[in-house]
Amino acid sequence: MIVVLLFCAVTSVAAQNDSIRIHPDTFRLQDRRTTADIDLLLLDMVAAQSADIHAGDTIDTLTVAEILLRDSIRREKEEIDSLRAVNAALASATLRQSLGPDVQKSLVKDPEEDLREFKRAKRELRTPWRREATLMVQVTQNYVTSNWYQGGSSSFAGLGIAKGKFGYESERFTWENTGEWRIGGSTISADSLHKVNTTDDLFRLYTKANLRIVPKVFTSFSAELETRLLPTYKSNSRELKSGPFSPFRFNAGIGIDYKPVKDLSVSFSPLSYKVVHVMDTARVKGTDYGLKEGERTQHNVGSSLRLEYTWKPVREIAIETRFYMYTNYREVEMDLEVNCDFIINRFLSARLMVHPRYDTSVIMEGDKHAKIQFRELLSIGFSHKFY
User: Fold this and answer.
1) Is 282 left (phi over 0), alpha (psi -120 to 50) or beta?
2) CA end-to-end span of the chain, whole Å?
3) DSSP code of residue 200
4) Helix extents (H) in 149-229
5) To 10 degrees, what angle do helices 79-95 and 35-53 make?
6) Residue of 10, 118, 277, 337 with fewest CB within 10 Å of its CB?
7) pTM of this prediction?
8) In angstroms, rounded to a whole number, what is the distance separating the alpha carbons of residues 351 and 356?
9) How far apart are CA 161 and CA 383, in angstroms?
10) What does the pLDDT look like over 232-263, one tens digit per residue?
């Protein structure tokens, strides 16, 4: 009778909670006759089940066992309810455990962040859909009086970043989508023509679909759209450097995506299409963006290489590297962007951004050859992630 009840209970509980199932060794219960023996066997089975479900994770089975002991079977007539309690206790216990090596490596203990990451990982085990969003608002301020002995100008600068990721991930097919909008501005008392100067303006959408050929190698299609949404002027000048959809860039490619390790992607597209468009050619110089004199749109067919890597030595530090190279076999464009985020707490972070680029099609006025372009930014402020 006990065996029948246990078998029915296990079947019922498994149907209610697909993510937590009692180990198949439940049938060994028929060889145990006492409640104490059943308790020990259940704990042994749950520990084995935990190891199977979370293979490679660092779940403290002793802690799980201690929690389960408080809810173990006390009388034979309570066996069905106790089996349900065992499953509930297991779920409660595992929520209090760290799920992987990334969670363990942290500079500061943060149980709430551990719980958030575990819930996110648990959700990803249940569904192939992925989503994540990041919001940053960072500011810097400087005040200098007119009689300061070293001179200088007062300034205020702000930077806002909104970034979202959405996609689908299965064993054979992955689909990644990323959207990003960066907007930054500053005030400089020495600039008498503009109260606020745009220092950073980027709107970017990126999508990539992969179909696995062999392990770690995928056929890939990718497309990227990048443009500006606000006008940017030179200091103390009415000359417009960039404006809404000036420039507008679009890249699409078909090729191979190689993913040797987690968070590393190397994509090569032997067939790549690139478009550069300047909407306001009357005020924006198209030659600053590789266009020829009098051109509004330029089309190119060539090859491209993209490398993306995210390294997290500890939870509080994330280094994102993005390298892109395109060539039409006459000209070469290379762009490297490295963002290092230092997380102080869940709502405060610092960011260091380094961004060199080289484009042989862009030769500035007064230069004979293309030169390396470079910018750097260090900021601190509000930051929060949404899962």
Assistant:
1) alpha
2) 47
3) E
4) none
5) 40
6) 337
7) 0.69
8) 16
9) 9
10) 887 777 778 888 898 999 999 999 999 999 89
